[in-house]
Amino acid sequence: MRENKFLAIYNDLADKIQKGKYMTGELLPSEHELADRYDSSRETIRKALNFLSQNGYIQKVRGKGSIVLDVGKYDFPVSGLVSFKELATRTGKPWKTNVHELVLVKPNHYIQQQLKLKKTDEVWKVVRSREIDDEKIILDIDYIKKQFVPTITKDCCENSLYNYFENDLNLVISFAKKEITVEEASSADKACLDLKGYTHVVVVKNYVYLEDASLLQYTESRHRLDKFRFVDFARRERR
Hints:
Blueprint: H1 2-18, H2 31-37, H3 42-54, E1 58-61, E2 65-68, E3 74-77, H4 84-91, E4 95-105, H5 109-115, E5 123-132, E6 135-145, H6 154-159, H7 161-168, E7 173-184, H8 187-192, E8 200-210, E9 215-224, E10 228-231
Parallel strand pairs: 3-10
Antiparallel strand pairs: 1-2, 4-5, 5-6, 6-9, 7-8, 8-9
Helix pairs in contact: 1-3, 2-3
C-alpha cells in the first residue's frame, strides 16, 4: 500500500511539472508541506522526491529544497514497451500520427536478416511521422510479419498498432530488444520531420517478440535530437 502511495505522489508531481504547474527553476513545496498536502509520511514523500530526481524532474539541493528541471524533452523508457499513443497521451499535449506509407512488400536482404525471413515471405511496411504540439518529431518505420498480422488498416496505424495487435488480433506481446544509436538524418527524416536545423537523429531499433519468443516486428524509430530523452531505472546489486 505504501508503495502505491509513493507512486501515486510521484505520478501526480511529475504530471504537474510536465503541465507547467511547477515551472523550471521553481522550488517544490517542502517535504513537510507535501506530507500535509498528500496526507502522507515524510518517508513516503522522500521516496517520491528521490524518484523524481532519478528521472530528471528535479535536482535536490541540500539546505535549499527540490528545484524543478527543464522537462521540455519527453521521456521514452528504454526498458519498457510503450506505444507512441501512450507516451503522447501522458504529455497532455495535442498529438497526431501521419501515415505516409502502408504496403505489403517482399523484404529486402536487410529486413530478411532483422526478422529472420525468407525471400518469399511478406511483411507490412508502415511509415508514420508523429506529431506532438504541432511538431513532427518522430519518424517510425515498421516492418511486421504478415504471418501474424494478415491485414492492417490506415485507421489502425493512426491509432495504435499495439492496441490492434493485442485487442483485435489477441496477440500477446512479451518483450523487446532495443539498440540506440545517433545517425545522420536521412532523406526520409528531412522530408517527414520538422528537424529545426538538426543534422542528426536518435535511432531506436526495436525488435518485438510474442510470448512464445516469435519475432513479430522490427521498427526503426527516428527521433529529433532535442525532444527526447531515453530513461531507464537501474539498481546496483550488492556484490
